[in-house]
Amino acid sequence: MPPEPEPSRQALAQALSLEGAERLEALRLVVAAQPRWCGAWAALGEHTADPVEAYAYFRVGYHRGLDSLRANGWRGSGYVRWSDPSNRGFLKALSGLARQAAVIGEHDEAERCELFLRQCDPTWPPADLLRDK
Question: Which InterPro entries does the entry link to (predicted)?
Answer without folding.
Answer: DUF3151 (IPR014487)
